Amino acid sequence: MTSGTETGGVTGTQDKDYNLIWYVEACLNNALRLENYIEDAERGKDTEVADLFRKAQADSRKGAEIGKALLRTRLSGG
């Protein structure tokens, strides 16, 4: 199956909704992964890298929140 052929017939979920669900999940997974990276940087006393990962984690959380709000609106028919 090539991308561009699935429109919900196989999964039962339209691509745009599935993609949005995937995006939220990816953002949340990234925020969790970055927590480990932050801890590693802190153990190594590398505050510059830890700060970079904190900023990236905040961006991932923000992306997840925006995605969840949009998903809520879309799935409720709004």
Overview of the structural elements:
With 78 residues, the chain is an all-alpha fold. The protein is built from 2 helices and no strands. It has helices at 15-43, 47-75. α1 (15-43) packs antiparallel against α2. It is elongated. The chain starts with 14 loop residues before the first helix and ends with a helix.
Key features of this structure:
elongated, 74% helix, 78 residues, 2 helices, mainly alpha
Brief digest:
The protein is an all-alpha fold and 78 residues long.
Reconstruct the topology from this structure.
Elements: H1 15-43, H2 47-75
Task: Specify the overall morphology.
Answer: elongated
Number of strands: 0
Any low-confidence stretches, pLDDT <50, length ≥5? Answer: none
Largest sheet: none
Supply the helix-strand structural class.
mainly alpha
**Could you give the distance between the termini?**
31 Å
Mean pLDDT score = 89
Strand content: under 5%
- Taking all Cα atoms into account, the compactness measure Rg is 17 Å
The percent of residues in helical segments reads: over 70%
Number of DSSP helical runs: 2
Helix and strand element order = HH
